[in-house]
Every structure is written in C-alpha cells, then in structure tokens.
Amino acid sequence: MPPLRALLVDDEFGALKHLEAMLADLHAVQVIASARTLDQAIDAVKLDSPDLVFLDLRLGSAHGSALLPLLPPSCAVVITTAYKDFAIQAFEAGVRDYLLKPIRPDRLARCLERLQAP
Fold it and tell me: Which of 17, 23, 30, 77 could hold 95 in an S-S bridge, CB 3.0 to 4.6 Å?
C-alpha cells in the first residue's frame, strides 16, 4: 500500500517537528507539506490535495476546524491538540481520530493502523 500523503497543521513549530520526526520513522505516511497558520494550510490544500491532515485546532486567533469544509471528502483528518474538550464536536464533524498532545508514538501508530484498515 502506498504511503498516505499528509499535511501537518500546527502553529507550534516544536509540535510540527515532533510529529514530523515520529512520522519519518513510520513508512505509512509521506509528509507533503506543513503549515503554521490557517492561511498556509488552505494554500497547501489548494496546491496539492492530501490524503490525510493532522490538524491542530488552535491556530493563533484562527480555529483549525475552518479547514474542514475545504478538504476533499476522501481526505482523512486527525485532530492533534492539547484540548480534550473538542473531541465530540470533532468526531461529529467526521474526523477519523483525535490525538492529545504530547502525542505518544504508540498512540500515533495505532491511529495509522486504523486509517489503513480496510
């Protein structure tokens, strides 16, 4: 199975680099772009439609959920956030998983296994 092409969206540089490093160890995902603002994420989606988006909900003054209607229906979304209080709304909006920061490698691996399951 070819790797999922992923966009990483997080306003925290350290969090982006941490997730990118964890994904580099897993061959299931190829990071095609990263964004630190909602505008950068929108531009990345327009440039190259990803299969998967790891999306932080708090992007400075913007809310990451504003990206959801702009994604193709085939795109899986995994929320990456430090706030557990958005989980129900996220799943109601159709996200595939919800990872709390700091993201643990074993939790990320389980998330990717579920995304790749038929």
Answer: 77
Q: What is the token pair recorded at 60?
A: 């400075």
| Integer CA distances (angstroms), 61 to 12, 79, 95, in order | 13, 17, 22
Dist CA 116 CA 118 (whole Å):
6
Interstrand relation of 52-55 and 4-9 (parallel, antiparallel or unpaired): parallel
* Closest C-alpha to 31, from 59, 61, 10: 10
CA-wise closest residue to 45 among 32, 58, 57, 56: 32
Contacts with 56 (C-beta within 8 Å, 6 or more apart), sequence order: 9, 10, 11, 12, 15, 64, 79, 80, 81
Backbone angles phi, psi at 50, to 5 degrees: -80, 160
CA atoms within 13 A on the CB side of 2: 6
Q: What's the pLDDT tens digit per position in 24-52?
A: 988 889 999 999 999 999 999 999 999 99
